[in-house]
Write a structure and sequence with these properties.
- With about 270 residues, the chain is of the alpha+beta class.
- The chain has a single domain (about 5-25, about 35-45, about 65-265), classed as Alpha-Beta Complex (Ribonuclease Rh, Chain A), CATH 3.90.730.
- About 30% of the residues lie in helices and about 15% in strands.
- Strands 1, 2, 3, 4 and 5 form a five-stranded antiparallel beta sheet that branches.
- Strand 4 (about 225-240) and strand 5 form a beta hairpin.
- Helix 6 packs across helix 7 (about 205-215).
- The protein starts with a helix and ends in a 25-residue tail after the last strand.
- Bound molecules: 2-acetamido-2-deoxy-beta-D-glucopyranose (NAG).
- 2-acetamido-2-deoxy-beta-D-glucopyranose binds near residues 46, 48, 49 and 50.
- One of its GO terms (cellular component) is extracellular region.
- Belongs to the RNase T2 family.
Length: about 270
């Protein structure tokens, strides 16, 4: 009996999605595939000029998966960092923003719902949180897409055959969520004995060493005053953001922005007012 239901939903969902106009995206995630060659160099690793920027991310080939640790007010689950974004910085650490205002979509929620990307949307509702003092979650998603998402060369509409308005943003949100799920900063720290505390203090080097020991790579961390509140994990991209491979690398030294000692990793208990 179970297999009949499973088969039924497997067949039905792609048809519903197709009816909505996204023939190559299913509700389970990315479905569209590019024909980018696996022999292309990774972004920022080319030795000659790459001309097909649908398959080679440029100039934003240094990709930062940024996460928040918001404690005042606390956002998201108490045992997880939350998503800030996925930023295509240039290989020299400069960056572009707001690359195509004509694609500043007015409802990311509608785009994801219409594409059948409901599991991505519900994940975002839990893990991609705005500071309520700054606005709604939807406003953060719109900002992240408009400011950073529109700068991906490999997500240009002209790269996508049979393009439907907004579909590249759906791919962006799917990839951000998928990558974030592999970067559980809370568990990385916990595995090294570092858990939130309102009294304990840390050095910058001990936090970076713990994160490297747990994940294999050194991220960059940021603080608000002496409170740890943000992290960036660094990647290059081989192929297109639609279906390419993220290749992690160590944050350049000096990219962290915290005091060298006395850093607090505060609990998300809404009780951190001093
Ligand atoms: C790599 O390709 C990009 C995009 O075409 C280009 O701007 C850059 O100069 C290239 N780098 C090298 C070392 O050729």
């Amino acid at each position: 009996m179970l297999s009949i239901f499973t088969l039924g939903s497997t067949l039905l969902l792609p048809l519903l999605v197709e009816a909505a106009g996204y023939a190559n995206l299913n509700s389970m995630g990315l479905f569209r595939r590019t024909s980018c060659s696996a022999s292309l160099p990774a972004s920022c690793h080319n030795t000659t000029v790459e001309t097909d920027l649908c398959c080679f991310e440029a100039p934003g080939g240094s990709i930062l998966q940024t996460q928040f640790w918001d404690t005042n007010p606390a956002t998201g689950p108490t045992n997880s960092w939350t998503i800030h974004g996925l930023w295509p910085d240039h290989c020299d650490n400069s960056y572009s923003e707001d690359c195509d205002p004509s694609r500043d979509y007015s409802s990311i929620t509608d785009l994801l719902e219409n594409a059948g990307a409901t599991s991505t949307l519900s994940y975002m509702q839990t893990y991609w949180k705005n500071d309520p003092n700054d606005g709604s979650d939807e406003e953060l998603w719109e900002h992240e897409w408009a400011t950073h998402g529109t700068c991906y060369s490999t997500l240009e509409p002209s790269c996508i055959s049979g393009y439907s308005t907004g579909e590249e943003a759906v791919y962006f949100f799917e990839r951000v969520v998928g990558l974030f799920q592999t970067l559980d900063t809370y568990q990385f720290l916990k595995s090294q004995g570092i858990t939130p505390s309102s009294s304990k203090t840390h050095t910058q080097s001990s936090l970076l060493s713990a994160l490297k020991a747990a994940s294999g790579y050194t991220p960059a961390i940021s603080c608000s005053g002496s409170d740890l509140d943000e992290i960036s994990w660094y990647f290059n991209l081989q192929g297109s953001l639609i279906d390419g491979t993220f290749l992690q690398y160590n944050a350049p030294s000096g990219s962290s922005d915290c005091p060298s000692s006395g850093i607090k990793y505060l609990p998300k208990n809404n009780d951190n007012d001093v």
